[in-house]
Write a sequence for this structure.
């Protein structure tokens, strides 16, 4: 008689509880990953093993895996299995009291209301297609490129005359292709400052990054460094300050590109979840199409683990880029994303997340706008906000006090170029938190601010 395979971690599922079995399994696997019981890069038990050992249906195990995939804890490798993501257990372990650490440094989308049915259906339909005998087009399936162009027209009002959409395995690949084609082996890149640390790190691996100072209206277009090849701006939502580039500065930026022969590069979806802003044209639709480009992915809407991104490049660069394209995403991934775009799933998920984030931003404003000696920025767009602190209250002190309360935040200084004068503040990313966790984090923050003797505004 064959004995059932043993699991390396204890899992106990109880039937008859209000919490469904897939939710119980998801929570216990997530906890094992965060605590390091399932180490980064280790192989997960298969869904067949889980279903057999735990006495559950394979559908329950699949649902748990899909949730962990959407949350960024695990990733699939074609033909090899499912593995724990390298960064999934980077957060410190929970305190001895058992209180979970809330990491507000994570830039992940909410998993609440994730469209699992549409997600499964798209991948199932994609798996029915016969692989092309001649291989995949280097720049991506034409149907996917057309679907991305249609989506950009819908969400950004962008008509891609003079541009080409190119599909890549990730944002880093899209950046590398554009920068190599524009600036050679060591391009000089002016990056809006402050900017997300991951973006600065990715660009620094590809060229020399110089700071482009930003103020309350976004990038200072009158201070573009001399002799740079590319300017990378964040016109719709300057992360982490939440600024929006005025029309006059947008024109100045595109004029610089036209007159200098440089290139302006912008994210495709950096203002995706704004509260009904007045429409401003994308940089790619303002200037000469020969001098503007975009990069984007669907990480903010679907899942960061989806290995598929895109670049919108001038046609003058498209031919050169095609010569050194990396191996693209699998045909199954490309077909599934095409399906999700065409069916309206991506647009619907965007609307759902916009509503979720608006409610969370209201909680953040309610808690933090009561402190007159601080300044809350970016709390009307996106899923993050920045709290500027007075010089008498160092951001490092606030961050350390919050960590003692099991809440982890980023310091604004981490978003600045090393040669820039850093701001004194903390950055809160809250899109991935549920309402209960967000309230707990805000309660810890207000207690910390009170302990630092920051007076609250009182009612008249």
């Amino acid at each position: 008689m064959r004995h059932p395979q043993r699991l390396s971690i204890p899992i106990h599922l109880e039937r008859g509880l209000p919490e469904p079995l897939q939710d119980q399994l998801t929570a216990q696997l997530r906890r094992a990953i965060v605590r390091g019981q399932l180490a980064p890069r280790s192989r997960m038990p298969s869904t067949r093993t889980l279903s057999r050992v735990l006495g559950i249906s394979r559908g329950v195990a699949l649902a748990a895996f899909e949730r962990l995939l959407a949350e960024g804890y695990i990733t699939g490798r074609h033909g090899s299995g499912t593995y724990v993501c390298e960064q999934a257990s980077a957060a410190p372990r929970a305190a001895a009291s058992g209180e979970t650490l809330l990491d507000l440094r994570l830039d992940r989308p909410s998993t609440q209301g994730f469209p699992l049915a549409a997600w499964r259906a798209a991948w199932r339909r994609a798996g029915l297609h016969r692989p092309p005998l001649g291989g995949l087009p280097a720049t991506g399936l034409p149907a996917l490129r057309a679907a991305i162009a249609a989506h950009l027209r819908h969400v950004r009002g962008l008509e891609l005359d003079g541009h080409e959409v190119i599909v890549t395995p990730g944002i880093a690949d899209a950046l590398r292709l554009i920068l190599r084609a524009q600036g050679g082996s060591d391009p000089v890149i002016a990056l809006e400052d402050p900017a997300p640390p991951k973006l600065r790190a990715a660009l620094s691996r590809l060229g020399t990054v110089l700071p482009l100072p930003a103020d309350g209206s976004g990038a200072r277009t009158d201070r573009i460094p001399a002799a740079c090849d590319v300017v990378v701006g964040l016109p719709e939502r300057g992360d982490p300050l939440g600024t929006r580039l005025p029309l006059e500065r947008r024109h100045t930026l595109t004029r610089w590109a036209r007159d200098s022969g440089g290139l302006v590069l912008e994210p495709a979806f950096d203002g995706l979840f704004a509260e009904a802003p007045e429409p401003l044209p994308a940089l790619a639709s303002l200037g000469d199409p020969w001098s503007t480009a975009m990069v984007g992915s669907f990480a903010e809407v679907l899942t960061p683990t989806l290995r598929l991104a895109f670049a919108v490049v001038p046609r003058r660069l498209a031919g050169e880029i095609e010569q050194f394209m990396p191996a693209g995403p699998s045909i199954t991934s490309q077909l599934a994303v095409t399906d999700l775009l065409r069916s309206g799933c991506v647009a619907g998920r965007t609307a759902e997340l916009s509503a979720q984030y608006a409610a969370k931003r209201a909680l953040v404003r309610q808690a933090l706008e009561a402190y007159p000696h601080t300044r809350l920025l970016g709390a009307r767009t996106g899923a993050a906000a920045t709290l500027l602190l007075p010089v008498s209250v160092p951001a490092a002190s606030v961050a350390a006090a919050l960590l003692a309360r099991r809440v982890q935040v980023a310091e604004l200084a981490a978003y600045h170029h090393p040669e820039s004068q850093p701001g004194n503040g903390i950055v809160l990313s809250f899109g991935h938190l549920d309402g209960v966790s967000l309230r707990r984090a805000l309660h810890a923050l207000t207690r910390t601010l009170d302990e630092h003797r920051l007076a609250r505004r009182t009612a008249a």
Observations:
- Residues 345-368 form the longest helix (24 residues).
